[in-house]
Please model this.
Amino acid sequence: MVRADFRFLYRLRVRWAEVDAQKIVFNGHYLMYVDTAISDYWRALALPYPQALESFGGDLYVKKATLEYHASAQYDDQLDVGIRCERVGNSSMLFQAGVFRQDELLVSGELVYVYADPVARSAMRVPEELRAALAAYEAGQSMLEVRVGGWDTLGDDARLVRKEVYVDEQRIPAEMEWDEADLACVQAVAYNRLGMPLATGRLMEHVPGVAKIGRMATRRTMRGGGAGRAVLDALMQAARRQGYREAVLHAQLSATSFYLQAGFATRGPQYEELGIPHVEMVKVL
Model:
């Protein structure tokens, strides 16, 4: 087992609380590392857990977990946990796991999950859509599709994501979230392979030659999974096609690192909008 066996790698750093009296990571914590990586694996597949599985009427339950120890991690080591779906049976899934320190394999393991009815706790056949998503990811395919269009075609899905993020999560009054500009804006929505909307944003003219990107929102369980960046890239491409030379946006302060990674720069002082700290950011297209 080597790092190259895994498309998906989850990075973490060993905490002091995870080290035992022998000054190495306590053996039981490695299973926690693998379980944490499994959660992020679903995000890499663009399948928000547990909502994606609930849409099929089932859930996953661990049937068997085995670990083999080859070497020990120590406090403050940076580790990469590889996860790979090895096989999907009728109602079961076999995952391979590897915990690496750089290229050194520290721990290898297998996890067997059973897909089951959460009420009856009886096994169910793994849905074909889920099988296809797992196979596509392990084959190196993209797990996202971004659609760009008008409010008439994308409005319902954009509204669903924005309501979940801005109204329900950030408690912005609903009447302040919706405006007539939506009807004239270019909308972008990112979908997973199940057709679930995951992230959204919109594009409009700010001043001649300058496009304004706004209403960027990603469902909580999918943040860090690439859906928001895919929407942002699609909107910037749409702005270039329309001949804009610059893009501007008003970023919540907590999201500035996301936009900095996409090449935006801050401009001007911080300010409050709807009680939330913001800053203007800009990028030359």
Q: What stands out?
A: The chain has seven helices and twelve strands. Residues 3-138 form a domain with the Thiol Ester Dehydrase; Chain A fold (CATH 3.10.129.10). The CA atoms of residues 246 and 284 lie 4 Å apart. The mean pLDDT is 95.
